[in-house]
Amino acid sequence: MIAGRRFPMHAGLALPPAACGSSSDRSLRSCPRRPFRKGAIGHAITSMLVLLLLAAPALAQTYPTKPIRMIVPYPAGGVADVSARIVAQKLGESLGQQVVIENRAGASGTLGANAVAKAAPDGYTLLLSPGDFVTMPTLLPPMTFDPDKDLVPITMVSRNPLLLVANTGAAFGNVKELLAAAKANPGHIAYSTPGNGTINHLAGEWFAIEGGVKFLHVPYRGGVASANGVAAGDVPFGVVSPSSGAALVDAGKVKVIALTGAERPSFAPADWPTLAESGIPVDVVLWNGLFAPAGTPPAIVNKLDQEVGRILRDEGVRKLLNAAGIEASAISQAAFVELIHKEAARYTRIIEKTGIRVER
User: Fold this and answer.
1) What's the rounded Cα separation, in Å, for the pair 74 and 330?
2) Backbone phi, psi, residue 154, to 5°
3) Span between the terminal Cα atoms of the chain, in Å
4) Parallel, antiparallel, or unpaired: how do β-strands 125-130 and 68-72 relate?
């Protein structure tokens, strides 16, 4: 409606003869116009929504009809990879379709995340990854996707603290001795992590700030390489995931100095103190979650959420994860989304506190 003017109906619309009287050759121009029914569009939209709602359960019931690809944006052997392989096997058995793991490492995990963000939103390409790209984006290389808009969180898979491990030949065996060595040699005590801008890197710098010392950061390519660097004596200590360091701890090649989380996981021995118990107020955990491309049908997201949650509550699966130094975390999608927002706000404050910077 502009200046009281009423727009005509489309000239190509034809009315049946009965609408204009008995004459079948009367032109549309001379035919009296029928009033536009405002409720017609609303009725059509409502009908379409009803059809979509009825179709959603059917879509979830038939999904999947082909193998699912689960991308892990880190090398094999790390906590994300181990978690993915255990969950993928059980998920494939549950859904009746193979779930294939694809390791696509690079760019601090954003390479694989980008591949999923750009994939078709049909439920056949998933991401199992730490949440660094959503909780600490300022520490990562420039991303070609928006994690808040291009990915949808499905559920958290695992959640556990990191380990501070030292070479067995290191002169320090606990937090107090490590801090004393660092104070005696400012900037010369090196520590390894899986890479720049990782949660391990943040934990190491936060530990240094709270301990009043300066360490030398040595980034590796992946968690296994980082842990092996400590075992080989290339660096005296490192911040590694339990799954990356567990075998080396069992073999006596590295020793655990502390856990970075405030809560002790069920698999941790009593003689592994937390940093908080050692007088250092640091609380950092590594979690891995399942994501899908934005636009994935809610029915599929809900089905995956329910299936993965059921798998993670299985005692046998929990034991498999614990044996690898991983704590299962079966929380709902809504709780997972809320946790992401809280973690992002918390780590933003910690990044500002430590002054950590990564060349982008």
Assistant:
1) 22
2) -105, -55
3) 52
4) parallel
Is residue 262 within 8 Å of 183, Cβ to Cβ?
no
What are 243's two structure tokens?
Answer: 């799954």
Both tokens assigned to 191: 């520590």
Round to whole Å and give the CA distance between 111 and 115: 7
Q: What is the pLDDT of residues 114-158, one digit of tens each?
A: 999 999 999 999 999 998 889 998 888 889 999 999 999 999 999
CATH superfamily of 163-283: Periplasmic binding protein-like II (3.40.190.10)
Question: Of 94, 96, 154, which is closest to residue 126 (Cα–Cα)?
Answer: 154
- CA-nearest of 340, 315, 326, 346 to 154 is 340
Domain boundaries, the chain: 66-160+286-354, 163-283
- The dihedrals phi and psi of 139, each to the nearest 5 degrees, come to -95, 0
**In sequence order, what are the beta bridge partners of 291?**
127, 153
163-283 has the same fold as 66-160+286-354: yes
Q: At what angle do helices 298-312 and 333-354 cross, to 10 degrees?
A: 80
Look at residue 6 in the predicted model and tell me its pLDDT: 35
Pick the residue with more confidence: 17 or 83? 83
Half-sphere exposure of 52 (CA within 13 A, CB side): 9
- Does the domain formed by 66-160+286-354 have CATH 3.90.230.10? no
Residue from 49, 56, 54 nearest 301 by CA:
56
- Cβ-proximal residues to 354 (8 Å cutoff; 6+ apart), any chain: 202, 205, 206, 208, 209
SS3 percent helix, strand, coil of the chain, rounded to 5, is 40, 20, 40
Cα torsion through 63, 66, 72, 73, rounded to 10: -100
Q: What is the pLDDT of residue 54?
A: 52
Give percent of the chain with pLDDT exceeding 70. 83
Using alpha carbons, list the distances in angstroms from residue 129 to 78, 82, 119. Answer: 11, 11, 16
Tokens 């050692």 correspond to what residue?
278
